[in-house]
Write a structure and sequence with these properties.
The complex is a heterodimer of chains A (110) and B (238). Chain A has 110 residues and is mainly alpha-helical. Chain A has 2 domains: 59 residues, no CATH class; 50 residues, no CATH class. Helix content of chain A is 75%, strand content 0%. Classes of the chains: A mainly alpha (110), B mainly alpha (238).
């Protein structure tokens, strides 16, 4: 390993600092004792739906449509999760069912 | 109701929401611990890092940072870029993560994707203390991550059964959360923007570099849509 112990600790501290900054900055910028700007309030209401969409794509970011299994197990399993959820609307059932289905697909089918 | 009973009630309400995370973090955390283990780090590295950083994707990147040449500024900039999406979460949580006393500090510190998603969408039952509910969701997630990472770091080299595909549990959870939000809201414009813009950016910029462009484009499109969306009535999310 090229780094000394102190250098490694500093590197870890930098990652901690970066993470903490991205989480605390909005709260510092828009303090509770001042009215939050209307535009930020609007973003606060609309961003989550978009952020969840981004997270879904983020989870599937390494799926390749053109190589390997062409993303088939991922698409089938996402469909299974959505189907289960719209049918029963039980979060645990949808998540567990979809995951087991996916594991079976990647271990035995594709 | 005494303090103890109140805590117990909040814990009982919070725990079921975190079960998918338990499975996911157990697996991802362990993968991370194993990764650190095979990269030549003692188990207390993943222990320390899972405790102090608590942001999955960055911790995997941090392994590479630690193996490379010493460059603290690069470590900071990389972290800021990968975690920039947390700025979105903060903006959405300005109300929820306030007024809970000292717990607010921990809630904001522990606002990873999973904690944010649950704490934003979960409907806290009547009579359950809001602050403690949010706190326990975050604490349990943090604990699972720590537990998995440490376990992976210690026993990593000894595990052999086939867990291929278990990481899909995270994808499944976010699909469910996306759907829940979808079923709750009247206007799906923002959800479409999130999916569509991210997908386009993923195609245009590739898997490693699409998060920041996606965020900027989402901000841009939502800003352009502000007038029509605000006119179209209040969204039913809350």
């Amino acid at each position: 390993m090229r780094m000394t112990f102190a250098q490694r600790m500093i590197t870890i501290a930098m990652v901690v600092l970066g993470t903490v900054l991205t989480r605390f900055i909005p709260f510092w910028f828009f303090p509770a004792d001042k009215p939050t700007p209307k535009y930020i309030q609007y973003l606060g209401k609309t961003l989550p739906s978009a952020a969840f969409g981004l997270l879904v794509i983020y989870c599937l970011k390494n799926v390749s449509v053109f190589t390997g299994s062409h993303g088939a197990p991922e698409f089938l399993a996402v469909a299974a999760v959505a189907g289960l959820h719209l049918w029963k609307r039980q979060m645990l059932l949808s998540v567990a069912g979809g995951t087991v289905f996916y594991m079976l697909l990647v271990q035995f089918v594709f | 109701m005494g303090k103890g009973a109140q805590l117990k009630k909040a814990f009982k309400a919070a725990f079921p929401h975190t079960i998918p995370i338990f499975a996911g973090f157990w697996f991802l955390g362990m993968t991370y611990g194993i990764y650190m283990n095979v990269s030549g780090f003692s188990f207390w590295y993943p222990m320390l890092m899972s405790l102090t950083i608590f942001a999955g994707s960055v911790e995997f990147v941090a392994v590479n940072l630690l193996l490379g040449a010493f460059n603290p500024l690069q470590a900071l900039v990389m972290t800021l870029m990968i975690n920039a999406r947390h700025l979105f979460y903060g903006i959405s949580m300005l109300d929820r993560y306030r007024g809970n006393g000292w717990k607010d500090i921990y809630l904001i510190f522990g606002m990873c994707d999973e904690s944010f998603s649950i704490n934003y969408t979960a409907e806290i039952p009547e009579g359950v203390d809001r602050g403690w509910f949010l706190f326990f969701v975050t604490l349990l997630n943090h604990f699972y991550w720590f537990f998995g990472a440490t376990f992976g770091g210690i026993f990593g080299s000894l595990i052999h059964f086939n867990m291929e595909g278990l990481d899909f549990v995270m994808t499944a959870m976010f699909v469910v959360i996306f759907l829940e939000q979808w079923l709750k809201e009247k206007n799906h414009a923002s959800a479409f923007v999130g999916l569509g813009v991210s997908l386009l950016c993923r195609i245009a910029f590739g898997a490693e570099d699409f998060i920041i462009p996606s965020m900027l484009a989402i901000l841009g499109v939502l800003t352009l849509l502000r007038k029509p969306l605000e006119k179209g009535g209040e969204k039913a999310c809350e």
